[in-house]
Amino acid sequence: SASAAAMSKVARAYVPRAFPSLASGVNRAIAETLFDDADAVASLDGRDVTHTAPAQLGHPCAQVIGAGKRCVHGHAQAYLYAPLREDGTSAADGDAGMAFRAEHATCWLSCPALARAVDALEREGGIHAIASEIAGGDIERALERVHEDTPRLRNFLVGDVVAAAVRMDAKTDFIVNKSGLIGVSLESLPQTKTWKKIKCLHAQLADALVRGRSKNPVGALVLDRLAERGVPVSGSATCHKHCGEPRSA
């Protein structure tokens, strides 16, 4: 059943269990190359995890480890997801003998209003329209860099010891180190059609909301297109009813 599947997802143990500490100078230096505002991502708190995310997603989600851009009500509009889950063991993070399964999603669009608006944009041919707009230009080249940066993001999140263990399993290694957003193969990236590099507007927007507009210009373009269509991209007076009470309340 759907409820059983949701409970199973909650019971899974994900790696890492939290965003890397920015108190470490090394972590901060790396994070600043991957995120426009790493401190904002690290602002995820208990209320986000136990109240807001379940209300937005329709189920609890232990995979959430970071917060994306917040709306006018203070709710994260997207979340950073842990890239791995433990497979058949309860050992602690960092045990090189652990087995893992990789998750393709790195960021997830959580704002119900934005998700519905992107649904409509995709139904109306938004992926191909944006592909035609960016083909052969600077934004397409920037999109390729987004895909190429994704393994760096995953490895930063899991840490060196777990990253070394991941490379021992071909399937997990392929997802973590040889694919970009939403499973786009890095090996065939130069030959991939532009619309296939985009693949999913939800994923591109989520990445931009979490990592920043400069880190994903396609996601930024999606947000701009929604705004042009009259979508209140930072939230409306009543949209919080799908996410819980405003955080300022």
Set out the fold topology:
Elements: H1 2-11, E1 14-15, H2 25-34, H3 38-41, H4 46-57, E2 64-67, E3 78-81, E4 84-86, E5 100-102, E6 107-109, H5 112-123, H6 126-134, H7 138-158, H8 160-166, H9 170-177, H10 194-198, H11 201-211, H12 217-228
Antiparallel strand pairs: 1-4, 2-3, 3-6, 4-5
Helix pairs in contact: 2-7, 11-12
Widest beta sheet: strand line-up: 1-4-5
User: What composes the largest sheet?
Assistant: 3 strands, antiparallel
Distance between the termini: 36 Å
Helix content: 40-55%
List the total number of helices: 12
Q: Beta-sheet strand percentage?
A: 5-15%
Shape: globular
Order of helices and strands: HEHHHEEEEEHHHHHHHH
**Helix/strand structural class:** mainly alpha
Mean pLDDT across the residues is: 92
What's the total number of strands? 6
Outline the low-pLDDT stretches. 1-8, 89-96
Rg from alpha-carbon coordinates: 18 Å
Structure explained in plain terms:
The protein has 249 residues and is mainly α. Helices cover 49% and strands 8% of the residues. The protein has helices spanning 2-11, 25-34, 38-41, 46-57, 112-123, 126-134, 138-158, 160-166, 170-177, 194-198, 201-211, 217-228, and strands spanning 14-15, 64-67, 78-81, 84-86, 100-102, 107-109. The strands form two sheets. The chain has a three-stranded antiparallel beta sheet. It has a three-stranded antiparallel beta sheet with strand order 2-3-6. α2 (25-34) runs antiparallel to α7 (138-158) and α11 packs across α12.
